[in-house]
Amino acid sequence: MTSASVQPPRQSTKSTLDHASGDKRFRILEAHMKKHQFRHDALIEVLHKAQELFGFLESDLLLFVAHKLRLPPSRVYGVATFYHFFTLKPKGEHTCVVCMGTACYVKGADKVLAAVQEHTRIKPGETTPDNQLSLLTARCIGACGIAPAVVYDGAVAPRQTPESALEQLGKWEAK
Amino acid sequence: MAAKTLTIDGRQVSAEEGATILQAAEEAGAKIPTLCHLDGIYDVGACRLCLVEVAGVPKLLPACTTKVAEGMDVRTDSERIRSYRRINFELLLAERNHICAVCVANGHCELQTLAYSLGVDHVRYDYRFPRWEVDTTHSLFGMDHNRCVLCSRCVRVCWHIEGAGTKNVAGRGAQSRIITDLNMPWKHADSCTSCGKCVQACPTGALFHKGSTVGEMERDRSKLEFIVTAREKGQWIAPD
Amino acid sequence: MTLNDLHLIQARELAGKKKIILRCCMAAGCMSSGSANVKQRLEQAVAEAGLGQEVEVRGVGCLKLCCEGPLVQADPQEVLYIKVTPENAPTIVATLRGEPADLPQTDLNAPFFKRQLSVVLANSGVIDPERIEDYIAAEGYQALHEVLTEATPTEVVETMVRSGLRGRGGAGFSTGIKWGTVAKTPGSRKYVICNADEGDPGAFMDRSVLESDPHSVLEGMAIAAYAVGADQGFIYVRAEYPLAISRLQIAIKQAKQLGVLGSGIFESPFNFSIDIRIGAGAFVCGEETALMASVEGKRGTPRPRPPFPAESGLWGCPTLINNVETLANVPPIYRKGAAWFAGIGTEKSKGTKVFALAGRVKNTGLIEVPMGTTVRTIVEEMGGGATGGGHIKAVQTGGPSGGCIPLPHLDTPVDYESLGRLGSIMGSGGMIVMDDTTHMVDVARFFMEFCMDESCGKCVPCRTGTVQMHHLLCKIMARKATPRDLEKLQELCDMVKHTSLCGLGQTAPNPTLSTLRFFRHEYEALLQPDTFGPHRTADHASLPAAETTLLHLRQTYRARAVEATTRAAAETTTTPTTAK
Question: What is the DSSP annotation of C362-394?
């Protein structure tokens, strides 16, 4: 039998709190929790804020949230991994979200995605080794009237084709 | 409390108000197969093995969470229910790597016993053979995700009986898995009290005492009973 | 705040109205095509032309014809400019002075617009969603005032029952009866939740309503809260809709400032406040019990019903959950009366329904039609038929929980019962047109993959059943399946449909069952003949137990060995998919 290879290193609450005291973002996060009176039901709101501040949810960040909200760490981890919006890994410099909703799909979003995948050699949910681009897919961004849609760094682009997608990637690469 | 009279498989049964169909059936001697149910902890109605037919209700209802009502007519066994239970079980067996011949719980496994009683002698679906880890970092216990059926009994005993909340479910869908604290190796989970309740609660060989080999992981059901009834009986030491 | 104040605001707004209004669509679809720039340039052009006193450039909600965005409508000229670029702005302003211009525009008398009947979308594209005064000018919050001062909660519920409104979230449960149940259930605290977790891919009605007319939803919630006796409301909205979230935040803030939300609304003893809860990307949270778990900050897994939320919902309190479109229907019902509403639609399905028309159809966008309009009218007449000269093959409604309406059934009227008979559902209102380039087995596979990814993993049939069904559909697509696999697929569909815990699992097989019903030939064309002879289940049953166990083990190990070799082969080239 092999021992588990679950990645996060050992985190103790104390070391996390020490670490947190030096970072202003933790103070902002704590103020946000205070606004919600450290209520358990604010967990998802707090995780949204944490991801907004830090970009992704590191394990010491989750431990900090668990400690402050007085929740078991496993519960915080369980919630953070349940929702697709939360990411536990750092994202790339740029993000490219291909909408794979039904309307986009029947209008060729799969071809757009295939082109991007081939160009970047990464799969949805991955980031390029140089940390430049994260490729993601969305279930539906509600922009069905202008399908197929792709979100480049938060801006929705309408009626995409493999060519237009590669053009945008090219612009980023040129920088 | 007021008593409710209902019919289970054609027999008149009376049950206390607030009792579940499962409890009423048990008292009436009708055996309903269950997997995620464990006496003493709250029910979640997740395994769907205890689904029963209730006259007048178009949907099948889980016996473990449905409360009895006056005049209810319940059928716990029909060709349709049996067929659904069999498919359900085949799906479970195909989901992860349930290889009895090399399992610590062989011969003492609820999954195995249920499979026999439901007549599941083969699986028609393609096995998924996922690759799951085995966590043997804890000094006393081990966790083999390959044998986990995600019944969440360990999660519930850990939170509602022990109050530690070490275990929880992470991820979702087929990628769901039981974690300890922040998905760290078990020995690093600070909140774990090493009480072993989860090991007693596990229906399969997923949670086991370290050092057990094939077929050796026998669960002491009296300990399990002690765990769930200690509070009401005021017992603080388990009987030998 | 009193009725008089409302009338004052309304009068002030109407008196200050300028002669010409350029309505510029600021909903998400047009925004992504650059309508914010267009609006800015229009304002600039108006100022440059010195028309500031006569012309107002107004950012409005959805103007419905999303495929032709950015859209700008000029009133009272009644001209709808399409595909407007910022460079067109001076030309548009010049036309206001009578100068001729050659700009692309669309016919507002086309069936796409003329066939619509706006109840929910009455304010959409007309008012500025970021100004409460605009909503009040359009008679907003008067219904709430009337309800609070002139009706008892019981009367409010009775009116709702009389109107015949049914839930627009999919199942079509009577809204009045739902309100009545929550009102009757005793509880020290009660809650009202607006379900804005519009997860169906291909549906964007709720997003448009929230972006175009957020106050109608707030007013609807307040009326509902008064009827059931709640003092706290939550709007659970998807994180994917940032614009809708920000407009809701603005709307709630303005409503609080004016005193139409908060404590002592309209100088009555009624208090009601609304908080926004932002989802985090889980389709299952559209299911009401999962949604409540998520509002409580937990994993969004559903729980068995009963108890229904009306009896034991949020934190165990009686809770009313209504969908966005349902709530947006509420203010018009109280403003114009239950009889007026009940006069629209069919016998059992009252009122109108908003559909998001998308897919391979010429006109994509938002449409609102009376219940009972045929699918053909919607897709052929209003939608203008298939794009690029193709032929419509089927229309998909209800997203991953619904089914397909094939060409021969296009004359089906849209109402809850008729769609249900075809094995589809009304759903929340996504309507995706598919033409002959779409392979129906692929569509079934697409939806099954969706359900597999979105399954919460709590109950066995949904968690493992969707995986096996998806596997079988992939096998069929890869031309590796036999008739026996098709049998297995059908059996699984039936099992998952009847044994899953929540609506997601119970409806996950619908797209597959529906395509199997109407397009079975497409499946059969992909099948290979059975190579192992007839089904052997019967033989297995008669074998002694020891032998079957042995057989099982042998099968297991053989399969493992095959798996190991293929995996080894795969690993040398790519990373295995199981590693993610």
Answer: SS-EEEEEETT-BHHIIIIIIT-SBGGG--EEE
Q: Do C201 and A47 touch (CB under 8 A)?
A: no
What pLDDT does residue B141 have?
A: 95
Closest CA to C327 of C227, C460, C464: C227
Q: Which of residues 167-206 of B touch A (CB under 8 A)?
A: 167-172, 179-186, 188-191
- Please check whether residue A66 touches C, CB under 8 A: no
Res C144: pLDDT: 96
CATH topology of domain B3-77: Ubiquitin-like (UB roll) (3.10.20)
pLDDT in tens, C424-439: 888 888 899 999 888 9
Distance CA C11, CA C139 (A): 11
Task: Single out the residue of A68, A71, B175 nearest to residue C298, CA to CA.
Answer: A71
Task: Give pLDDT, residue C573.
Answer: 47
Res. C551: pLDDT tops 70 = no
Q: Fold for C18-109, please state it.
A: Glutaredoxin (3.40.30)
User: Which residues of chain B does C552 touch, with a Cβ-Cβ cutoff of 8 Å?
Assistant: 121-123
Put simply, whether C490 touches B (Cβ < 8 Å) is no
In chain A, positions 119-158, which contact chain C (CB-CB < 8 Å)?
Answer: 123, 125, 138-147, 149, 155-158
Instruction: Taking residues C532-541, report their average pLDDT.
Output: 47
Cβ neighbours around C128 below 10 Å, total: 18
Write the class of the CATH domain B84-228: alpha beta
Q: Which pLDDT score is estimated for C429?
A: 86
Write down the pLDDT at residue A6: 43
> Would you call A74 and B182 a contact, using CB atoms and an 8 Å cutoff?
yes
Does residue C170 carry a pLDDT above 60? yes
Q: Distance (Å) from the C-alpha of residue A130 to the closest C-alpha of chain C?
A: 19
Q: Is this prediction's ipTM beyond 0.90?
A: yes
Least confident range from B123-132, C106-115, C330-339, C571-580: namely C571-580
Q: Which of C114, C116, C119, C87 is nearest to C103 (CA)?
A: C87
pLDDT at residue A16 in the model: 65
Q: Examine the pLDDT at A8 and tell me if it is beyond 70.
A: no
Pick the CATH number of C352-438 from 3.40.50.2300, 3.40.190.10, 3.30.390.50, 3.10.20.600: 3.10.20.600
| Mutate which: B182, B187, B208, B217, vs A, most A CBs within 10 A | B182
Higher per-residue confidence, C351 vs C570: C351
The verdict on a CB contact (< 8 Å) between A158 and C29 is yes
**What's the distance, CA A154 to chain centroid?**
12
Same domain for A162 and A126, yes or no, is yes
Q: Do the chains contact at C299 and A79, CB–CB below 8 Å?
A: yes
Q: Check CB contact of A63 with chain B, cutoff 8 Å.
A: yes
Which residue among C364, C399, C580 sits closest to A145, beta carbon to beta carbon? C364
**Polymer length of chain B:** 240
User: What value does the mean pLDDT take over residues C218-230?
Assistant: 97
For chain B, say whether C479 makes contact (Cβ under 8 Å).
no
Q: Could you give the number of structural domains in chain A?
A: 2
Domain boundaries, chain C: 18-109, 139-342, 352-438, 441-524, 542-578
Q: What is the H or E stretch that residue B221 is in?
A: helix B221-233
Helix spans in C338-480 (H): 338-342, 375-376, 416-421, 440-454, 460-477
Nearest-Cα distance to chain B for A44, in Å, is: 15
Q: To the nearest whole angstrom, how far is the Cα of A11 from the nearest Cα of chain B?
A: 8
Residue C261 binned pLDDT confidence (cut-offs 50, 70, 90): very high
State pLDDT tens for residues C27-40: 988 988 899 999 99
Q: In what order do the strands lie in the sheet with A155-157?
A: A133-138, A94-99, A150-152, A155-157
Residue B45 touches partner C, C-beta closer than 8 Å: yes
* Residue span of the structural domain in which A69 resides: 13-82
